[in-house]
């Protein structure tokens, strides 16, 4: 059985992905800040016959992800897959200067991804195998009003993912995949404090029938189950009703 470390596992896409991977027989190390939700998820997975261990932590803290990696090795003996799913999306217009939120997005969406990668690469190099799946966004391909900083963080995720592939694929057999969801029903929009965003974008967003967390989870599982000689580098998944 392959072992997965999954960040942002307590809700939304992360929770749906944990359940879907457990159903496919993956061992799971679940990490997020909300330990109670993680324990509830692990119990649900265990009741269904899966194997999941909680390693509560914050992706902005390097030591928390190192701890998750150590737990994976101690309990399961390998780290075969890292899914960098944790992220925040407090969209705002640049003119409104939500600088604290800019900093938070850089810390979680970029540094958090790098911290996850740094925690697992030594083991993946040693075993000469591994797969890193980074959850980006269609905002990692385009910028719309209000998405400048969020898009910048997702552009960074795209570059980091491709850089790992270029450096690590041939000598260490480490695969990379970036998943770019479109409008997804999740709690991400709850972090938006710039009410002007809703005034400007609300009507357009209301025309889109969002995809569910389970839809994105199924896509992640598809990528995770590819054979070792197949490096599925990028997948875009968006609602049929979404034009951008």
**Tally of individual domains:** 1
Distance between the termini: 38 Å
The major β-sheet equals: 7 strands, parallel
Q: Give the overall shape.
A: globular
What percentage of the residues does DSSP assign to strands (E)?
5-15%
Regions with pLDDT < 50 over 5+ consecutive residues? none
- Give the topology string: H per helix, E per strand: EHEHEHEHEHEHHE
CATH class: Alpha Beta
Structural class: alpha/beta
Find the CATH topology: Rossmann fold
Count of helical regions: 7
Secondary-structure map:
Layout: E1 3-7, H1 12-23, E2 27-31, H2 35-47, E3 51-54, H3 62-76, E4 81-84, H4 99-127, E5 130-135, H5 148-172, E6 174-181, H6 195-205, H7 213-224, E7 234-237
Parallel strand pairs: 1-2, 1-4, 2-3, 4-5, 5-6, 6-7
Helix pairs in contact: 1-7, 3-4, 4-5
Structure notes:
The chain has 244 residues and is an alpha/beta fold. It has a single domain (3-237), classed as Rossmann fold, CATH 3.40.50.720. 48% of the residues lie in helices and 15% in strands. The protein has helices spanning 12-23, 35-47, 62-76, 99-127, 148-172, 195-205, 213-224; strands spanning 3-7, 27-31, 51-54, 81-84, 130-135, 174-181, 234-237. A seven-stranded parallel β-sheet has the order 3-2-1-4-5-6-7, with helices on both faces. Helix 1 (12-23) crosses helix 7. The longest helix is centred in the middle third of the chain and has 29 residues, at 99-127.
């Amino acid at each position: 059985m392959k072992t997965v470390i999954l960040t942002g596992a307590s809700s939304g896409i992360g929770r749906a992905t944990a359940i879907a991977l457990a159903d496919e027989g993956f061992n799971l190390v679940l990490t997020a800040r909300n330990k109670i939700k993680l324990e509830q998820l692990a119990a649900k997975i265990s009741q269904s016959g899966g194997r999941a261990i909680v390693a509560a932590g914050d992706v902005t803290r390097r030591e928390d992800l190192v701890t998750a990696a150590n737990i994976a090795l101690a309990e399961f003996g390998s780290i075969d897959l890292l899914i960098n799913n944790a992220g925040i999306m407090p969209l705002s217009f640049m003119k409104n200067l939500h600088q604290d939120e800019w900093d938070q997005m850089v810390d979680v969406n970029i540094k958090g991804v790098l911290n996850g990668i740094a925690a697992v690469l030594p083991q993946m190099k040693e075993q000469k195998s591994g797969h890193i799946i980074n959850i980006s966004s269609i905002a990692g391909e385009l910028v719309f009003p209000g998405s400048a900083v969020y898009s910048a963080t997702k552009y960074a995720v795209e570059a980091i993912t491709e850089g790992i592939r270029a450096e690590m694929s041939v000598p260490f057999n480490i695969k990379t995949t970036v998943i770019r969801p479109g409008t997804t029903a999740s709690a991400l929009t709850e972090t938006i404090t710039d009410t002007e965003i809703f005034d400007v974008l609300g009507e357009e967003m209301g025309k889109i029938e969002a995809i569910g967390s389970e839809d994105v989870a199924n896509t992640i599982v598809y990528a995770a189950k590819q054979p070792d000689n197949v490096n599925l580098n990028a997948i875009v998944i968006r609602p049929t009703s979404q034009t951008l």
